[in-house]
Amino acid sequence: METLIVLFGAFTLTLLIIWITSKRLELRFSGRVAMALMLVFTAISHFVFTKGMTMMIPFLPWPNVIVIFTGVIELIAAIGILLPTTKVLTGKLLILFYILLFPANIYAAIHNINLRTADYTGDGASYLWVRIPMQLLFISWVYFSTIKNQKSK
Fold it and tell me: What residue intervals traverse the membrane (predicted)?
């Protein structure tokens, strides 16, 4: 839920700042700023809660490396989504990234993994029911703020 607070809070604040300073409504730019801030927030989680996140992917080799690497990918995507020349490509790759992360979220829900305490006391199926719409929201958010009606170069 913290990710949604960061996403919607940053979006609202960015919209407000732009509106106050320029009297323009910059939905796509505000969406990209909000997604970038959320990506930084989630990347930090990869470094702080590495042990819990590795529990989500025991079926992959080198789970610690993968968790750290995906955190780095999120930091790079946070930059790429803000740059005019890379936002479309970053958006496409970020959508693929979110799709590839989905099996780990399903595994975490099925096995009741609590990422913060790195144990099996999580919310289980309720986590999955929240995570599915969140993943779809993130994918849609990236699509509408980076790809839709944009000309790729």
Answer: 6-22, 29-49, 61-83, 95-113, 125-144
DSSP of the chain:
-HHHHHHHHHHHHHHHHHHHHHS---HHHHHHHHHHHHHHHHHHHHHHSHHHHHTT-TTSS-HHHHHHHHHHHHHHHHHHTTSTTTHHHHHHHHHHHHHHHHHHHHHHHHTT-BTTTTBS-S-THHHHHHHHHHHHHHHHHHIIIIITT----
Torsion from C-alpha of 87, 91, 94, 99, nearest 10 degrees: 180
Global pTM? 0.87
Domain positions in the chain are 2-147
Among candidates 147, 19, 23, which has minimal Cα distance to 86? 147
